[in-house]
Fold:
Amino acid sequence: MAGFKLRLRSLPFDTQAFNYHLDGDFFNQVEKTEVRSSSVDVTLQVTRKTENTYVLQMDCKGWLNIPCDRCLDDLRLVVDTDYQLTVRHEGDEWDDSRDGVLLVPEAWTELDLTEMMRDTVLLTIPIVHCHADGECDPEMMARLGEHWADTEPAADGASVEAPLTDDKSGDAIDPRWEALRKLKDNN
Structure:
């Protein structure tokens, strides 16, 4: 993507600011992601320290729409993250093995920021992403409730899990321990 290339060698020895806008297409052009739509504004400040050293400070703010893990309806996630990286022209190989330092070949005049911006924003998505309790699509939750094991209808007609209980105390029992309890009772 041509619009996301930074011309390193032509930067002056001070701080420059660049602004980018990332929409849903941006996240799905290279590889399909779960981002359905988005509006993320990226402010990049680049400080050229020496002939071959640049400090990049990226601030990303906006939102992503992704599917809820539970009901599959749109879930809006707020994006508010930053990333700092030192880029140095050194040698003939790309080397990103050190934290916070990227070594690029001396012959390079441009740095493509696409992958860096994409990964910075996508890493804000939590592993489990669900609506808060009670905010999921009620129709989908009713359909899911029909297929849950150990369910019984609640007073309002929705399905709820019926926990196993200890006959003596009335406390809930983890079903994984039920077999062990039976062994103990038989001895």
The chain is about 20% helix and 40% strand.
